[in-house]
Amino acid sequence: MSGSAIGTDSPAAEMAAATPTVTQKDQWMVESQVFHTYQHYSSLPSKAQAVLLELQRDKHMEFLTKGLRQLGPSFSVLDANRPWLCYWIIHSIALLGDSVHDNLEQSAVDFLNRCQDPEGGYGGGPGQASCFAILYVFYRIDICFLLPHLATTYAAVNTLTTLGGYRSLSSINRMHHGGEIDVRACYTAISVASALSILDDELVQNVGNYILSCQTYEGGIAGEPGSEAHGGYTFCGFATMLLINEANRLDLARLIDWVVFRQGVEGGFQGRTNKLVDGCYSFWQGNKVLKELLSLTRLPIVGREVEGGFRDKPGKNRDHYHTCYCLSGLSAAQYSYSEDADSPPLPRAVLGPYSNLLEPIHPLYNVVLERYYEAYEFFSRR
Ligand SMILES: CC(C)=CCC/C(C)=C/CC/C(C)=C/COP(=O)(O)OP(=O)(O)O
Ligand SMILES: [Zn+2]
Question: Which domains, ranges and CATH numbers included, belong to the chain?
Answer without folding.
Answer: 41-179+262-380 (1.50.10.20)
